[in-house]
Amino acid sequence: MKPSLVLKMGQQLTMTPQLQQAIRLLQLSTLDLQQEIQEALESNPMLERQEEGEDFDNSDPLADGDDAAGSPPPENTYQETQSSVENLEEVNDWSERIPSELPVDTAWEDVYQTSASSLPSNDDDEWDFTARTSGGESLQSHLLWQLNLAPMSDTDRLIAATLIDCINDQGYLEESLEEILESFDPELDIELDEIEAVLRRVQHFEPVGIGARDLRECLLLQLCQLPEDTPWRSEAQRLVGDYLDLLGGRDYSQLMRRLKLKEDELRQVVELIQRLNPRPGSQIESSEPEYIVPDVIVRKHNGRWLVELNQEAVPRLRVNPQHAGFVRRADSSADNTFMRNQLQEARWFIKSLQSRNETLMKVASQIVEHQRGFLEYGEEAMKPLVLHDIAEAVGMHESTISRVTTQKYMHTPRGIFELKYFFSSHVSTSEGGECSSTAIRAIIKKLVAAENAKKPLSDSKIASLLEEQGIQVARRTVAKYRESLGIAPSSERKRLM
Description:
- The protein is of the alpha+beta class.
- It has helices spanning about 15-25, 30-45, 65-70, 85-95, 130-135, 140-150, 155-165, 175-180, 190-200, 215-225, 235-250, 250-260, 265-275, 320-325, 335-370, 370-375, 385-395, 400-405, 435-450, 460-470, 475-485, 490-495, and strands spanning about 45-50, 295-300, 305-310, 315-320, 410, 415-420, 425-430, 435.
- It has 22 helices and 8 strands.
- Pfam families: Sigma54_AID, Sigma54_CBD, Sigma54_DBD.
């Protein structure tokens, strides 16, 4: 084909940096948003916090002329203080006009950075690497700390450090003593008995039961460290040492015959064993705790459910009127241009926060409208809800709803829930209605809690009980819901009365 030049006319939506900022702030969690706001306050002299008790003008300076007087800003959003400085209105004449509504609705394929903490600050001197990469104390570091306090020879300390390195996160020794012996230099002349002796010393470290080679040894270590006058301690040691497989199979009749115990006595022995920790290493957290700050608060007032933003989670911002007054309209010097750009960025940032809160309020209000039954009666009254339902109600794309509900939390009288918790698939009922999967899980949990401990309900029995309530669920679906709730199969739920 012969190359040629073709002139075409068309329209295309351009994602400006300001619009990208608004969309990115929309999908930030509260903790990430707080960090983003702090960075903006440190980098932009035009921004300042709105302190409590200060006079605050509710008029919107972002609108021009008659637009500001015609419609007050929505409640529970960030407000920019109306400056009394005369030339601030003149700045609005030449500065880029900010629209009353930002088009933050986006499609699935639009991807933006979601975490403010994942990017280092521009100031390398103030960027704290350890603050962003440090984690909690690991099990190995906890054991090595105890090893440093224990009096040992250099050889024993080397053996102990090697043993600790072979302990997994659950607290069990993964390698056999023979394999550990082969890993040492033959010139050290280390014998298997030495490794066995050092292992016994490591097994006395905290947490109790650490360094065991199997479940039986782990439980026995914990029982041995209980006071000698602990009731049923010796019987529990015998059960764990000789008949742990019968306990795992719930063969209580065989256990009563072997141990020569009555049913009530065996029950107390089993209860003592159940108080032990089969995974002692899990007591040491290896990651930083995650804190949840609710974005939305839901409460009932005079019979109505009210939705409001958590104003204490994020500081209120405004343009500093004194700094804004330094901007001169006709001055094109470098300093004045810098201040003019900072002022415009501050106004865009505040508007982006307003847009974020307005969108969050719209989505949260629709969720509360759909899930009033949950707020009134609990999980069993949860209605089926998908992203499309909320997207259609607020007039936005499903991907926008997904971004708004991710890492956003709602404080309700029933607890704090992520907004995504209120979305669930549905199952048809015999009467032609629908029941949400969350409600079915709640019913299964209730049935299991009320079952006979000697004859627990099987998945097939639970499916038949649900069918009696008009909910048609297959046995494999019941098994899937049961596993998601962390409920063991019926064969493992069998208990002594």
